[in-house]
Amino acid sequence: MRLSIFVAVFAAAACAGAPPASPLPRALPSLEAIDAGVATPRVAEVDAVLALQSAAAASPRAEEIVRSLTTEVGARIAGGPKDAAAIAWAKRTLENVGLKVHTEAVKVPHWERGDESVEIIGGGAQKLHAIGLGGTVGTGGKPIEGDVVEVPSLAALSALDAAKVRGKIVFVNAPMRRTRDGAGYAEGVGVRFEAPERAGEKGAVAAVIRSVGTDRAMPHTGSTRRKAKVPGVALSGESADALHDLLATQKHARIKLALGARWLLPADSANVVGDLIGRERPDEIVLMGAHLDSWDVGQGALDDGAGCAIVIEAARLIAAAGRPPKRTVRVVLFAAEEPGIAGGDAYAALHAPEVGKYVVAMEADSGTSKAYGVRFLGGPSADASWDALAARLAPLGIARLDSRASGGGDFQELVTRGVPVVDLRQDEALYFDVHHTENDTMDHIDPAGLRQVAAAYATAAWMLAETDADLGRAPVIKEK
Question: Where are the alpha helices (DSSP H) in 176-236?
């Protein structure tokens, strides 16, 4: 059967969400047979990629990996009581898929949530469905009360006269847009980072925000700036609407909150590194990453258990093919991404001497919905490799995007040092319904999406590790 017909059949099956059955009238050759010269180089590449993609479509292993992490470990905040168990799980799991594994020590921030209570008192009294922002200060063992001042944005908060804020609680009510590409989160996350600090600078006693999320039922945690001197709390969409309506009708609302949050001394943790050693250029590295930690609510299934499963399964698929690619494929499960990229920064510092040998980096941290696009960042010499990779990803329903890649959070220091990156963009329209909430649990995993994304990462990692091409160095990106 002609390749174009196979591509059409595979793409249709992938888009329908069903594992595509191979329409080929023969078994796909092993990578050893391909390497031995069964086919021409171009046909060999195509057949090897199809073999990886077919294996991914038929395998339940990625889902099993997420289930193992969420049930055996669960929520695993950096430095917390499950941190060591998560590291042990990562070592064992990477070894089981055939990688050579070691750990690299990292000192991580250690924040503890404690008990929380947020309520409207006086007129309209009610409990509010709320959660402390990650890294917030507590209330010092006693409740804080204050009248509420509502603003629709950070800009409006900045424009407030300090006299109108002093001694009060600022409420930033900024709904997040639901988008496929995560643009709504990028627009809204600044409120979570900045509101407590800015409110405190104006004399407020606390800040509450509408959660940076797209559902209405759950409050969403996530990092706020550690420089903030006053507590920061996120409300569910329903509670934010209730507070807004009370202010609109009664022109007054008063909140009492008590947070047991506190910062502890930095804790010992580790990045977990697994290598499939390259058969010809072992010192040249194709890097796949995800972060091992999660917040302390839910199970950390989508954020970022799914990412861990994607990169582990991609490495397993390549290892199971029978012969390693020319370059080393490395998987890193990073410590402490959520409270501030501690693992990513530590990794970049430790590996700075070898950064010139990093061929490309790819991070998975967007849940389990299917990937719809791919984008690249590298030197001019990489153009032909990007074209070839985009063509091999097309059967999975993944289109080439015009925008440039930026790399995941854990790779930002590597990108500033010139390491090329590939972004496999997943559909995030539903991701922020459960992101950073108690609902980040195994039942929200999309098995079909997980398989498709694992196939995409395996395809990209194998092709870029097998090619002889130089991907150049990424241009320096100055903006955040």
Answer: 183-201
